[in-house]
Amino acid sequence: MAQSRQTEDEQPTQTPSEEHGHLGKLAGELSRYAVSADLVDGGSPYLRVSNPASACAVEDVICERREHDYAFIASFGVHLGSSGSLGVTAHKVAWLVGATEE
What we know:
By secondary structure, this protein is of the alpha+beta class. It has helices at 18-30, 86-96; strands spanning 36-40, 46-50, 58-65, 70-74, 79-82. The chain is globular and about 35 Å long.
């Protein structure tokens, strides 16, 4: 039986989570708006969305697994949308940071 060893130079590779993938898709939808959307990896990935026109307009969006899909949640706990409604969710997030007219 062969064993694999990790040398000091090698870093373990991590497969991006499903949540990471859905946050990436939301970031893609947000490219239609005048916002910056940066995917932050860590213990739990999140999407940091900011309005470049305002130093204070920043929102962190997390993604949670639900029974039939994934939900996007604002940092203050409000449900913004689901993985099945990325366009609507992106509009809500852009509105939240002041990057839409509506």
